Amino acid sequence: MASIIPRAWKRLRLSKTSGWVCNDCRRTFATSRVQRQQQPPASGQHESQDPKSTHFGFQTVTEELKAGRVANVFSSVASSYDTMNDLMSLGIHRLWKDHFVRSLNPGSRNSVEGQKILDIAGGTGDIAFRMLDHASNINHDNQTSVLVSDINPEMLGEGRKRFATSPYKAAGRVAFLEANAEDLSAINDSSIDLYTVAFGIRNFTYKQKALEEAYRVLKPGGVFACLEFTPQLRNPVMNAIYKRWSFGAIPLIGQVVAADRDSYQYLVESIERFPSQEEFAGMIRKAGFLLPGHGGEEEGMQGAWEDLTMGIAAIHKGVKPA
């Protein structure tokens, strides 16, 4: 990796497109479009204050425009999404997802009906498969089911293809729903045992609204669980290296492997715009959830999440009060 990053970085620095300066490593990162000129917001400014505008990567756009652009990104990368995740994370995303599912221990040994799991932005079915495998093989629960929801039909199409010949599909243990996570009106109040979202919530226009919907659909005692990239590593040196890799190599990989530099440029920028661990934990609590190991508002947020691989990603959880 050490040899790849400088070469990719050198190529990108020769570009005449606009860029932004990383405050940690003081280097200019090239972007693929001239209009991406604004720098990432200061801490605490990730959500737009104008209800009719929001962000798309480093750009400020209208809500309607963002929805279309995000849809185009995931329509473009749907068929190569899992392959690109392997290349972008050097395969580590698979270990994170395995750990995420083990930490939730889906399935129940004592329930006749099993759990009802809602996997939001679940597109390709990667998390759903892991949930069902764990419930069946570890907890010997053949009743737990997963509803895979995604706003993008192409991503759902990849999931449907993956499950088409699986025993879970034949047993009716997996279903698919095209829906916006900010409006889950197709799902009844207090009907879900476990709500999961992995590497998807950073693309939502209004994350707080999605958290409130998660709270609504969960049963009392139900669990909200999120696996997502973080904008900053705790170690400043490693953070600088990580930024060089993210903004230098990943868009280049997208260009070479998927012939789609812009989509992967956006994916990197969307990580930079995501709230910090502290901010996101506060948003989860604001939605009404209890944070595991934490009490009232007077307590700090430290420890309300689990950092993975030096903080490149993190797991957040919340419990709906019984």
From TrEMBL:
InterPro entries xref list: SAM-dependent_MTases_sf (IPR029063), UbiE/COQ5_MeTrFase (IPR004033), UbiE/COQ5_MeTrFase_CS (IPR023576)
CC annotations in GO: extrinsic component of mitochondrial inner membrane
Biased composition (Polar residues): 32-46
Its EC number(s): 2.1.1.201
Taxonomic superkingdom: Eukaryota
Broad class of enzyme this protein falls into: transferase
Main location class: mitochondrion
Subcellular compartments: Mitochondrion inner membrane
Keyword line: Membrane, Methyltransferase, Mitochondrion, Mitochondrion inner membrane, S-adenosyl-L-methionine, Transferase, Ubiquinone biosynthesis
Catalysed reactions, semicolon-separated: a 2-methoxy-6-(all-trans-polyprenyl)benzene-1,4-diol + S-adenosyl-L-methionine = a 5-methoxy-2-methyl-3-(all-trans-polyprenyl)benzene-1,4-diol + S-adenosyl-L-homocysteine + H(+)
GO terms, biological process: methylation
Pfam families associated with the record: Ubie_methyltran (PF01209)
Binding site for S-adenosyl-L-methionine: 124, 150, 180-181
Bilayer topology: Peripheral membrane protein
Region Disordered, annotated ranges: 32-54
GO molecular function: 2-methoxy-6-polyprenyl-1,4-benzoquinol methyltransferase activity
Pathway the protein contributes to: Cofactor biosynthesis; ubiquinone biosynthesis
Assembly behavior: Component of a multi-subunit COQ enzyme complex, composed of at least COQ3, COQ4, COQ5, COQ6, COQ7 and COQ9.
Function noted in UniProt: Methyltransferase required for the conversion of 2-polyprenyl-6-methoxy-1,4-benzoquinol (DDMQH2) to 2-polyprenyl-3-methyl-6-methoxy-1,4-benzoquinol (DMQH2).
Family: Belongs to the class I-like SAM-binding methyltransferase superfamily. MenG/UbiE family.
Protein name per the record: 2-methoxy-6-polyprenyl-1,4-benzoquinol methylase, mitochondrial
Source organism (scientific name): Recurvomyces mirabilis
